[in-house]
Amino acid sequence: MQAANAGLTVLALDIGSSSARAGLFDGTGQLIEGTLHRVPYRLETGAEGRAELDPLLLTGWIEELLDAVQARTTGPVTAVGISCFWHSLMGIDEQGSPTTSVTMWADTRACDVAMRLRHDLDAQAHHRRTGAYLHPSYPVTRLAWLREAKPECWRVTRWWCAFPDFLLARWTGDLCTSVSMASGTGLFDTHRLTWDDETNECLGIKPEQLPRVSDTPLKLRESFRQRWPHFANALWYPAWGDGACSNVGSAGIGVDRATVMIGTSSAVRVLWRGRAVEPSWGTWLYRLDSDFVLAGGALSEGGDLVDWIRRRFVLPPEPELWELVGQQRPGTSGLLWLPTIAGERSPHWPVDAVATLTGLRLGHDGVAILRAALEAIACRVATVVELVLHIRPEVKVFIASGNALLATPGWTQIVADAVGQTLVLAPDPEASLRGAALVALARVTGRPLEELARVDVTRWQRVEPRGEATMVYRAMSTKMAALEEALETIQERGRAR
Q: How far is the C-alpha of 84 from the C-alpha of 38, rounded, in Å?
């Protein structure tokens, strides 16, 4: 079967929160040398909680990215697999033009609306049906906010969708969304696999205002067939959530494997074929498709906090910086971060969390602050690991992935220590990109996805936890929980005034 697939070529596109990547993969799921291209960008943020992207600018960058891959393509492409960030929201009008920006999971402007929705809807029942939360991270809440905050946009909007839905509609002329993308909206019943009537009725959204849900591949419209002749006859699949693709691309498939991912944000995820379970509070439940379920927990902080610190503090150049960070012993700085600089998702899902740093003295420098941030994120990842193990106690293998985690010297050791589990390091930093290619290959070849993605990880590099450090980080987690509780009390008193 593998030999029969050797002539296949698939195009994979991964649209992330801070960059997009595209490349060609052969029929065995290997990246074809010289075809990988990347375009970086940055979220537009503001003090009011804004976190958004310009849909037309982003579209232009992605199309230029595909131009670059097209220029390196020598033959026809069979299929196109797209991985994209979950939880984005935008509006488009009757002509298919954007009516809003692309609001992202890190946008916190819907905090007050989220609090009201938790009174209008049964938050627990909503979570059981949709696997999502009434939280600013989700389109369900930002839709309600947009209706109030931008009524002029609401009036001219014909459809509400995720960014990759708009992109594919532009390229193919068909507005649809995958089961995967729909499952991350908070508007979709992840068990019945249909838009959730109760939620949409509460928001005043009609089914015809949302994309058709379909995993059926599409074909390019004529103008783009001419622009990308090597992709002209390919099957273009509606985008899948990047978290699900990341699990596939890092061999994290099956109930015995979990991925620990730190990129711009962080997540712990388990992907399996079979029946959906009821997620416990603190965790979510999404889909790769109608067959594969993805459960886990997500943190809004990760590489974004590291980047924030590096932009705002005077730090030594590399590699000296990481040598100094590594010389500090676990938990000895006296600093304690609540690292929720982009708000909090798991484990508590408050709507208005902020970051806090305590314990500062004159002797502290940027290196100590950076080390404390790496430790704090690791401790919060460990909390999410415990939640995931309640859903899938069968997990025995923990696969570390994500560019921020794997590219930051010493961070995998800190995470292994905090989690108290051996980490095996995914060798491919582009896990979501490769995952999109593998899912597309499974579709066009009929091969089971497990057969393509579930490789032997015993030879991958391993990082073992150190018992003494694990105890230090568990004590740190306890202190972080107490600090979080104290901060919540202060915030509640402030709201009461």
A: 14
Superfamily of domain 251-497 in CATH is ATPase, nucleotide binding domain (3.30.420.40)
Distance CA 330, CA 337 (A): 14
Quote the pLDDT of residue 490: 83
* CB contact burial 318-346 (16+ within 10 A = b; e otherwise): eeebbebbeebebbebebbbbbbbbbbbb
The amino acid occupying position 21 is: R
Cis, peptide link before residue 347, omega less than 30° from 0: yes
Cα–Cα distance between 259 and 398 in angstroms, integer? 6
Q: Check residue 334 and give left, alpha or beta (phi > 0: left; psi -120 to 50: alpha).
A: left
User: In the 8-state DSSP scheme, what is residue 8?
Assistant: -
User: Quick one: tokens of 137?
Assistant: 């991270």
Q: Are strands 79-84 and 9-15 parallel, antiparallel or unpaired?
A: parallel
**CB atoms closer than 10 angstroms to residue 167:** 21
Q: What is the pLDDT of residues 306-346, one digit of tens each?
A: 999 999 999 999 999 999 999 999 999 999 999 999 889 99
Question: Which residues on neighbouring strands pair with residue 56, listed in sequence order?
Answer: none
For the chain, the domains span: 9-238, 251-497
Residue appearing with tokens 């009821």: 278
Which range, of 3-12, 146-155, 371-380, 403-412, averages the lowest pLDDT? Answer: 3-12
The pLDDT value given to residue 446:
97
Contact (Cβ atoms closer than 8 angstroms) between residue 444 and residue 76:
no
Reduced to 3 states, what is the DSSP secondary structure of residue 437?
Answer: helix
Neighbours of 110 (CB within 10 A): 28
Task: For domain 9-238, give the fold.
Answer: Nucleotidyltransferase; domain 5 (3.30.420)
Domains 9-238 and 251-497 share a fold: yes
